[in-house]
Amino acid sequence: MGYTQWGAFAESVAARSELLWPVPAAWTEEEGAAFPVNYFTAYFAYWKAGLISTAKPSTGPVPRVLIHAVAGGVGTAAVQIGKLLGVEMYGTSSSDAKLARAQELGLQHGINYKQRDYEEAIKDLTHGEGVDAVFEMLGGEHTAKSVLCLRDLGRVIVYGSATGQQSELDTRLLYAKGASVHGLWLTYLSANRELMNQAWQQLSRWTSEGRLHPVIGHALPMEQAAEAYRLLAEGKNFGKVILKIA
Questions:
Q1: Distance CA 96, CA 187 (A)
Q2: Does the pLDDT value for residue 60 go beyond 90?
Q3: How far is CA 116 from CA 57, 94, 120, in A?
Q4: In degrees, to the nearest 5, what angle opens at C-alpha 75 toward C-alphas 72 and 79?
Q5: For the whole prediction, is pTM greater than 0.85?
Q6: In a 3-state reduction of DSSP, which class is residue 179?
Q7: What average pLDDT does the chain have?
Q8: How far apart are alpha carbons 205 and 27 in whole angstroms?
Q9: Which is more confident, 4 or 102?
């Protein structure tokens, strides 16, 4: 299994040798395909948030993370990694059914954003304190709303813009809490061989211990690529959508 930025629909593609990793023996090809982008992105989100070395602390508050689109590919990976790191996780999704499945993976607090404003829900669930980090891939108004979900010195990790809208953020929102916004683009980070090796050492340890399991929502033939995009656009997927080449 490997990572490359371009050529996702090609029947064959060249990847750099340092961005190829062995697929665990018990995994299917689909699980191998679902792993690199999802789990490296989720890992680096925790790393950017300063939480990657965090185990369940013996003293002090347990770190809190809000994961948007928690039922998606990166979201389900972030839940599994967050469980291993011992963080308290809050996740947004469009349906109670998907939130229930995310809770089976380890999510503690599910927020159906179609029924409840997640900013208000975070205030209620954390008794007004907020979370330490938000994994934000929606764009538009959600970047600013995510900042408002933070506690003091919190961080928003931005890794996408699923709404297709430019992020709206008045940086003055950051002042009062000493908050910060960090960008995450796996293509950029993948060029740092030392960083990728460090991430793989931890991820491969967890996979060898059977503690990470890629979630496959749908595996469709290449001829149904349009249907795969419809599943994503309509929010009907849980986990990764895979295209199979005959």
A1: 33
A2: no
A3: 31, 10, 8
A4: 135
A5: yes
A6: coil
A7: 94
A8: 15
A9: 102
- What single DSSP character describes residue 107? -
The pLDDT of residue 5 is 84
pLDDT tens digits for 66-96?
999 999 999 999 999 999 999 999 999 999 9
Q: Are 62 and 70 in contact (CB under 8 A)?
A: no
Helix, strand, or coil (residue 219): strand
Q: How many residues does the chain have?
A: 246
**CA nearest neighbour of 45 among 16, 15, 80, 19:** 80
**In this structure, are residues 138 and 69 in contact, taking their beta carbons and an 8 Å threshold?**
yes
What residues are paired with 243 via a beta bridge? 220
SS3 at position 91: strand
Enumerate the β-bridge partners of residue 157: 135, 182
Q: How far apart are CA 66 and CA 156, in angstroms?
A: 9
Q: Which residues of 112-130 are buried (b: 16+ CB within 10 A; e: fewer)?
A: bbeeeebbebbeebbeeeb
Rama region for 223: left / alpha / beta (φ>0; ψ in -120 to 50; rest): alpha
181: which strand partners? 156
Query: Rounded to whole angstroms, how far apart are CA atoms 246 and 241?
Result: 16
- Residue 218, beta-bridge partner list: 241
